[in-house]
Amino acid sequence: MTVPAERRHAWHFIGAGLGLLLALGILAAFLVDEPLRQWTERTVNDRIKGYHVTIGGLAVHPLTLSVDLHEVLVRQDIHPDPPIAAMPRITADARLSPLLSGKLAAAVRIDQPVFSATKQQVNGALRRFNKPLVQEGTDGWQEQLRETIAFEAALYLTNGHFAYDEGKPDSVPVRIQRFDLEVVNLTNRPADGDTRPSALRLSALLPDESHIELTGRADLLTKPLPAVEADLKIRHLELKNFLPVVQRYNLQVRAGALDLTGRIEHSNRATIVSIEELLLDRARIDYVHSAATSRAEKRRAKKVVDKAAEVHRDPSVKVLVVHGTVQNSEMGFVNQATSPDYRLYISEMNLEMDNFSNRLEEGAGTVKVTGKFMGSGPTVMKGIFRPEKPNPDFDLDVKITKTRVVAFNDMLRAYGDADTKAGTFAFFSELSVKNKRIEGYVKPLLKDVEVYDPAQDKDKALTRKIYEAVVGEVLGLMENTPRDEVVTVTDLSGPVENPQASTWQVVQKLVQNAFFNAILPGFEHGTG
Known about the structure:
Mean pLDDT: 76
Protein name: AsmA domain-containing protein
Transmembrane segments: 12-32
Pfam family, one: DUF748
Radius of gyration: 33 Å
Number of strands: 23
Strand content: over 45%
Helix content: 25-40%
Shape: elongated
Keywords: Membrane, Transmembrane, Transmembrane helix
Structural class: alpha+beta
Largest sheet: 23 strands, mixed
C-alpha cells in the first residue's frame, strides 16, 4: 500500500522539526556551558571556606541527561601547592524515572583523581576543623542538605591516587598507588528506621601490594562526623612505607608487615573499635630518645596519657583487641641523649595478647612475650592486665637469664665509665599493682663479670669492692651466694608513687627504677 503524498510530506515536516529542535537543544547546551561553568565555580567557592575550586570546563549533554566537569582542581588557600585534589573528569548522570516522582537521582563518576597533602596542609585543615564550621544557632551543611529536595545519589571513584609528604628535603612521600571508592544510596530521605542507608566500599593498594579494604554501611549526613559501621581488613601492610609519618614520634621503623581484621562502629551514641585479629611479622622498630626532642617527647606522652584517660572515662567508647600476635621481631630503645649512644632491645621477639579492652565488662587481658634480651638472654614476660577502675590494676612476671654483659658496654660507658669483657646478667621480678599499691620484688643477678678499667692498671677482674658497691650502695642486702655471683632482692612493696599514672606509666617507672637505678650506679661507684 502506498502512503499518500500528503502523509509523506507530514512525516518529513515532523522529522525536520525534531531535527531542528535537537539542533537547537545542542546549540543551547553549547551556549550555556560556559555561563553554567562560571556559575558552578562561583557557587562552590562561596560555599566552602579556606579552599578554592577551579573548573577547567563544563559540558551539558541533554540527550543523556548528564554533565561533565573537566580539569577540576581544589587548592587550600594558605598552602595552595600541591592541589588537594586534581580530577581530570567528573561525570554526573541523572536518572529520569525518579524525576517523575519529585526526587533527584544521579550517579557521579570520578576517574583517575589525584589527592595530595603535605604536613602543612594537614595542620591547616586540623586547625580549621577544630573551629566551629557554622555559627551557633544556624544549621550545618548536613541539615541544609536534609531540607532540600529529596535526592538519591551514587558515587563511584575509580583508579585514584594519594600521596602524603612531610615536606622535609629527605622525606619520601607515603603513597597509595590505587584506590577505589563506591558509595550507593547516598540520600537525604532514608527509609524509616534505616540509620545507615548508604552502602560503602573502599579498596586501597599500596606500591608494595599491601591491601586495605573497608566494607560496610554509613549515614554520611550525620554530624559532626558520619555514622559508620564497617569491617576493616589489612593485608601485608609494610610499615616502612609510613616511616616519614612515624619519624615525628621518634620511631624508627626498618621493617615489618601488618595483617589485621576488625570492625569499626561510630555514631552519636557510641564508638566501638574491635580488632578481631592482629599479626605483626618481622618488625624492626626502635624508639629513639634524644636531647633535642626531649621536651616534645614529654608533651607527646602527656597528650597520649590524657587521651587514654579520656577514652577510659567515656562510657560510649569501647576499644577491644580480641587477639594480637607479634612474631619474629626486634624492638628496642635507643638513647641518643648520652655519650656514647646506647641501645637496649629484645630480639627474636614473639608476643601473644588476648582480650585487651578499656571496658571492665570485657574482663582481664593477658600478654606473653618471649625473646632474647640484648640478643642473648632468654626472656619470658607474662602479664595480666585488668581495665583501670580508675587506677592501674595488673600482675607482671619477668624472667631474663644468661644475658651477655658485654652487650651493655655502651650503656655502661654512658653512665658509669665501665667496660666489661665477660660475664652474664639475669633479672627476675614478680609485681602486682592493685588499689594504688605495688606488691612484689626485683632480683637482678651478675655472674662471672670481668671489667676492663684503665684507672686500675687494666685490671680485668671485677673486684669484690665493686660487688659490695653494687649490693651495699644500691641493691641492698647481699645473699649467701658463690663468690663469683652477686644476687640481690629488692622489695618494691608500697603505694604507687603517682596515683594518677596510667598502667603503662607505672610499668615504665618500675622498669626504670628496677633496672637503671638499681644496677648502673653500682658500676659507676665501683669503677670511679
